[in-house]
Write a structure and sequence with these properties.
By secondary structure, the chain is an alpha/beta fold. It has two domains: 114 residues, 60s Ribosomal Protein L30, Chain: A; 164 residues, Alpha/beta knot. 34% of the residues lie in helices and 21% in strands. The strands form two sheets. A seven-stranded parallel beta sheet has the order 9-8-7-12-10-13-11. A six-stranded mixed beta sheet has the order 1-2-5-4-6-3. Strand 8, helix 7 and strand 9 form a beta-alpha-beta unit. The longest helix is centred in the middle third of the chain and has 14 residues. The protein is elongated, with a radius of gyration of 21 Å. GO terms for molecular function: RNA binding; RNA methyltransferase activity. This is RNA methyltransferase. Keywords: Methyltransferase, Transferase. Belongs to the class IV-like SAM-binding methyltransferase superfamily. RNA methyltransferase TrmH family. One of its GO terms (biological process) is RNA processing.
């Protein structure tokens, strides 16, 4: 990355652009990605951290821009990410710590940030196979919860996450951070409640919903006979009646103690690993 140019110089392909000014229009456009409507308009999002950026590149996500701090100059993995970005036709920026902090909204940001094209899977392209498990989330609002669920679903071997209704954005920076890279390996789908119910009827899946009125212990549900969709409700309101009634089975997690509920990400993890238990072995981990 020795071929640098001043930030006011002309853009020439295959070069690294050096930026130190917060007022640079490229930086302003990148900072605008902190707002959902700007991410949707541009079809891009931000991932912070060298590991996340390399994970995305390894799994074939299209990178638009690579940003790294001066501390990253000369580091082999940063050099590799920059070379991959240039090869893909992307822009590489070397920036000051001040600029990187303004982009990530953190005082101590990691040294690398990537701007990637967003990727959604179409709901009606999903044709579940035997032994597949999907997680459907109704109106999930907390970015940390969503990111943790995507990470957990990836770890459990689920095939995808379906976002139902108005949910938080899986491509928000906080959500992407919480996925720890799983956003790049697990398909994410979005659907209206009507679309989800229509797909459910034709998908051949066993939709198992967690619900306070669930009459079945979640450990007793049938997770083996056909593809499973675990349907989880909104953090505050739970599942609406139309989704709850359309589920094939309603289950509940037995609890003791004074807490009246579980965090959504924890509850999803508990049920998900039970649903996948017959498919998970230590050989999967060791191998």
């Amino acid at each position: 990355m020795s071929d640098h140019r001043h930030e006011d110089g002309p853009r020439r392909p295959g070069q690294v652009k050096e930026i130190t000014s917060l007022a640079n229009p490229i930086i302003k456009d990148i900072k605008a990605l902190s707002v959902k409507k700007n991410r949707e308009a541009s079809g891009t999002f931000m991932a912070e951290g060298l590991k996340l950026v390399l994970d995305a590149l390894e799994t074939g996500w299209k990178i638009e821009t690579l940003i790294y701090s001066k501390a990253g100059q000369g580091k082999p993995l940063v050099e590799r990410a920059a070379a991959r970005t240039i090869a893909a036709g992307g822009l590489v920026l070397e920036v000051s710590e001040k600029v990187l902090s303004s982009v990530t909204h953190r005082d101590n940001p990691q040294m690398v940030v990537g701007i990637f094209k967003s990727r959604w899977q179409s709901l009606f392209d999903i044709r579940p196979k035997p032994h597949e498990t999907f997680v459907a989330l109704d109106r999930v609002r907390d970015p940390g919860n969503l990111g943790t669920i995507i990470r957990t679903a990836d770890a459990a071997g689920a095939s995808g996450v379906i976002l139902v209704g108005e949910t938080t954005d899986p491509f928000a920076l906080e959500t992407v951070r919480a996925t720890m890279g799983s956003i790049f390996s697990l398909p994410v789908t979005r659907a209206t409640p009507h679309e989800f119910l229509k797909w459910q009827k034709s998908s051949g899946t066993n939709v198992i919903a967690t619900h306070l009125k669930g009459a079945i212990d979640y450990r007793k549900a049938d997770y083996k006979s056909r593809p499973v969709v675990l349907l989880m409700g909104n953090e505050q309101a739970g599942l609406p009646d139309d989704l709850a009634e359309a589920a094939n089975v309603k289950v509940r997690i037995p609890q003791q103690g004074r807490a009246d509920s579980l965090n959504l990400a924890v509850a999803t993890g508990v049920v998900l690993f039970e649903a996948r238990r017959h498919l998970l072995t230590l050989a999967d981990i060791d191998g």
